[in-house]
Amino acid sequence: xxxxxxxxxxxxxxxxxxxxxxxxxxxxxxxxxxxxxxxxxxxxxxxxxxxxxxxxxxxxxxxxxxxxxxxxxxxxxxxxxxxxxxxxxxxxxxxxxxxxxxxxxxxxxxxxxxxxxxxxxxxxxxxxxxxxxxxxxxxxxxxxxxxxxxxxxxxxxxxxxxxxxxxxxxxxxxxxxxxxxxxxxxxxxxxxxxxxxxxxxxxxxxxxxxxxxxxxxxxxxxxxxxxxxxxxxxxxxxxxxxxxxxxxxxxxxxxxxxxxxxxxxxxxxxxxxxxxxxxxxxxxxxxxxxxxxxxxxxxxxxxxxxxxxxxxxxxxxxxxxxxxxxxxxxxxxxxxxxxxxxxxxxxxxxxxxxxxxxxxxxxxxxxxxxxxxxxxxxxxxxxxxxxxxxxxxxxxxxxxxxxxxxxxxxxxxxxxxxxxxxxxxxxxxxxxxxxxxxxxxxxxxxxxxxxxxxxxxxxxxxxxxxxxxxxxxxxxxxxxxxxxxxxxxxx
Length: 491
Known about the structure:
Elements (H helix, E strand, L loop, with lengths): L1 H6 L15 E6 L6 H6 L3 E3 L1 E4 L9 E6 L9 E3 L3 E2 L5 E8 L6 E11 L7 E13 L11 E6 L12 E9 L4 E13 L1 E2 L5 E2 L29 E2 L6 E5 L14 E11 L5 E12 L7 E10 L3 E5 L22 E7 L2 H4 L20 E9 L14 E6 L7 E3 L38 E4 L12 H4 L3 H6 L23
Antiparallel strand pairs: 1-12, 2-5, 3-4, 4-12, 5-11, 6-12, 7-10, 7-12, 8-9, 8-11, 13-14, 15-17, 16-17, 16-25, 17-18, 18-22, 19-21, 19-23, 20-22, 23-24
């Protein structure tokens, strides 16, 4: 087999490129009259050249050397890398230039692809042959033989590429094989512009159309991609003030959460599930506050299940069969109903807001929201809008949302416009009458929070400027840049 590997050096290790140039069928007719021209189309040859002597069809056919060996590498013709999506037959026309000889045989084999091999050629698997000559039903033919060989089932309907090898061999005498009009029912998968490397080698174990190297879930056809926010290795920060509609002490540490979202999508880029991780870092409150999440614009019916939420049978929470809160137009998930239950106080007042009090290990909640992918119901990433909120002191109709985020159907409007709140509509909500100050903050990075009863504005020195400007000024107020923080005020 040494000669085959040398001649087939055009079949190098594959790289991944687009498949837009893929052609149907791998065919060769010899009518170019040039072996170099056919090699440029990614065919390989061992002791075969185009010749005008007694052609089978047209002006040229491929002539082999005298067949004096049964070795598959003695005289051969190799097709480009192909994929075989359907069953079918390899067809070709063949004859010999004389009857001088003992045996003349055409052997059909395929190569698997092996990235570890120098030329990508893995195992050579022989799957069929036809034989003429002494001791066989048919004599060595000098007249046209129409050969038809069925493709082996092993190479059909999978995502791999294969190379077909046709060996024209024999023993005794000087009779040469003449081949013409070779037709392989496959999808041509070689790139002539790139040294005849395979156009693409897509290993797709779950057959979802996404190659394993790009598939975060290579063995799950319902999932393909992770889409993290803020990123796969960082967390954002949510901070709440629970004395709304009063500004209270405005220390924004009544509930402090780290968060990360992963919107898992399938091969069609539709969201299959949402994985949310919430790390409860601090509870600077004496009230038993809950924490919820609304998916704005996503009806509850589009959620198939919710797992990981931490509720304890409180009488103000009723769940539907899919785990969402009942009586809501949009999908609402109560992540936990009582922050003080999931993160119990270990001594002293408040949790992780007084440095002199015992530190409590943060609690992690891993939430999974599974979504429908039914036709016409599946959601894109842009359809997912997270609306986190605080439920104040087990009072279900008293919610605190991010500024300009709508309350849920359960919220009461009786608090809007009272005390310091200046809510006028769902799109102009949860901001104070003075300076547009919010009661909830969402920062796309992990930042320190305030010590207990220390005004947020004294720790984050440019926060007020940002709030007054409706978010157009000092947009980096939360970063640890010069002039942004007074670290002595931070926990």
